[in-house]
């Protein structure tokens, strides 16, 4: 499985993904699930994926080749006029890949499916964030639903629901995301470190802060250990029940 | 869906269950999912269920009738010599009910399945806690796995994992459980108030503190509101990230 979060803040767009993939419990690997396309001044697009790895890699490869090959340049992911068109192009690519895999070879129920989080900004438009379904349709984040999760989303959802605010700084968003990811990693074997992140600043039109948080990252360790203590002490602060 | 937790403490056994059942999103009802059998001085058994309501009600009714009807008294749920025998009897009843439903009428994949948490104490033995699978087998709680959850367990799991301690008082356990249930209810429509509870004290051999926590319970409201604030302040206490 997987855990990815895409978040819309006043300051910009925030993305974090884990890197664990598994085919069964005894076949575990590390793969990057976050892909960033950048053309400074023109547009920055970030894509995260959960689901069948062959499907998501095929989608990224097809989109990626289009940005490189000269004779097959249109429709290029970075040539799209708006984020909405980027979402349509990626959703169509995803749907085609799934349909293509599903028609040949052995049948497998939903096994080729994948779900994507897409976010970014194209010059002339605002930053936008989309959740793309394997059926090829998608929804957009707004004020009521300002973040999307894909994969093992349940464990890390309560803290996001409680602590998300649109005015969070990037530093605060990083802390919130690491708590959400740590809760998930502690509870589910199919989500694992390292974590990839991208913090895109609105109107910068260039790749923002990116990096990878590994299992021995001192900040992550401090959060992981500190959060358990903080939760216990938060619980202690609650009023005492009386029978 | 459902959310139930059974917990083994030094002080005794703790049970909490929600009461929402649904067949589709537009068919919601309230049903008690906790059943207590008591014979003071002899034994107390608590059963909680998640899954197909017809199945779980059939299991409880069959076991219940056996405690009342005179000519069909053996094997009675309260006549069992040990909790292990109670688990075997209930597991067999569950398996029989599922098999019975599955063989007649229309076929439905797994639709008749149910999972149970069983806990209690029979005179002469210690308190024991079991998780019973629809296949009719079961596992027992121990020092390494001192609590079981069934139903929508993911949202409320992180706080249990972090804050459970075997030495919790019943009052502390109530607080912990309400936080876990509140996180689940906030995130999932298929889990809802009121909540039923039973706190069984080791070696008392009589029904312990039981009751129902409704949506307007002042303590629950205080926890539900206070916990959001406490989480945010716990997050604020964590070290700040620096890029």
From TrEMBL, chains A, B:
InterPro entries linked to this entry: Ntn_hydrolases_N (IPR029055), Proteasome_sua/b (IPR001353), UCP009120_prtse (IPR016545)
Highest taxon of the lineage: Bacteria
SUPFAM superfamilies documented for this protein: N-terminal nucleophile aminohydrolases (Ntn hydrolases)
Segments traversing the membrane: none
GO annotation, cellular component aspect: proteasome core complex
GO biological process, one term: proteolysis involved in protein catabolic process
Protein known as: Proteasome subunit beta
Species this protein is from: Pseudoprimorskyibacter insulae
């Amino acid at each position: 499985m997987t855990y990815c979060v895409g978040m819309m803040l006043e300051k910009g767009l925030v993305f974090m993904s884990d890197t664990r993939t598994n085919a069964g419990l005894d076949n575990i690997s590390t793969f990057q699930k976050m892909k960033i396309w950048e053309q400074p001044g023109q547009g920055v697009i970030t894509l995260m994926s959960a689901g069948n790895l062959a499907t998501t890699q095929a989608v990224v490869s097809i989109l990626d080749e289009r940005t490189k090959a000269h004779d097959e340049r249109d429709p290029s992911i970075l040539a799209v006029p708006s984020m909405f068109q980027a979402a349509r192009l990626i959703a169509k690519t995803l749907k085609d890949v799934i349909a293509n895999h599903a028609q040949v070879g052995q049948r497998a129920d939903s096994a080729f499916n994948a779900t994507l989080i897409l976010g970014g900004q194209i010059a002339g438009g605002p930053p936008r964030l989309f959740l793309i379904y394997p059926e090829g349709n998608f929804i957009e984040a707004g004020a009521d639903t300002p973040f999307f999760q894909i994969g093992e989303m349940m464990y890390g959802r309560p803290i996001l629901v409680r602590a998300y605010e649109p005015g969070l700084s990037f530093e605060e968003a990083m802390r919130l995301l690491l708590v959400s990811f740590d809760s998930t990693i502690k509870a589910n074997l199919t989500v694992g470190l390292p974590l990839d992140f991208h913090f895109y600043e609105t109107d910068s039109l260039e790749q923002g802060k990116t990096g990878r948080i590994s299992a021995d990252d001192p900040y992550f360790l401090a959060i992981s250990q500190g959060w358990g203590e903080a939760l216990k002490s938060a619980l202690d602060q609650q009023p005492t029940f009386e029978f």
